[in-house]
Amino acid sequence: MNRFSADELSSRLQQGLDSLKITATAEQQKQLLLLLDQLVKWNKTYNLTAIDDPMDGLTLHLLDSLAVAPFINQSTLLDVGTGAGFPGLPLAILLPNVQFTLLDSNSKKIRFILQQIHLLNLANVTAIHSRVESAQHDRFDAIISRAFASIQDMVHTTKHLLSEDGRWLAMKGQYSKQEVESVVPAVKELACHMLTVPGLTAERCLIELVKAE
Question: Domains, the chain, ranges and CATH?
Answer without folding.
Answer: 6-211 (3.40.50.150)
